[in-house]
Amino acid sequence: MLPRALEDAVEALSHLPGVGPRTAERYAYYLFRSSPNVAKNLAEAINDLHDKVKSCPVTFALIDANEEISPLYSDPARDKTTVLVVEEPLDIYAIEQTKGYKGTYHVLGGAFSPIDGITPDELHIKELVERVKTDGVKEVIIATNPSIEGEGTALLIEKILHEENKDLKITRLARGLPLGVDLSYADQITLSAALENRTNL
What we know:
alpha/beta, Helicase, Ruva Protein, domain 3, 5-stranded mixed β-sheet, elongated, 201 residues
């Protein structure tokens, strides 16, 4: 039997994705053996997540709580007529690391997946359609993950956008991204090539 506080720490850590019971035990024991400041700083950082981070009301990217809108949208150097669509906020930072994209972003908040109960209404597709109108968007780059759900989401977005605007240019990241690999885990070279060689739908 572990001490109650250690058991509670293991239980809490085991809720993290990819962390099983044994890994949670190692993490908890590491935190116990480390300086109290390590655990304190970790606890404070986690506690601040919900108070100091929010979603941009336009792009749905993550921003500081004191910001009104994402700098990746408000920056005058950003081309608002080009919008790159991703599933999750962290996918944006993977693209930004390539330093090869100067447009804006739109986060869907997931992927269309009937099996998991995720319907189009739960994604930020309506907001994307509205942005295309209000910002005079000329090109939408669909950068959903190369998975079955990601491909289905891309086709859904393409259909909805073309119903609203048949002349809108819709492109997809080139197929250099391997199937089954999340965008946030792709290396910069692969992402740069995929972005450069995007194709028409």
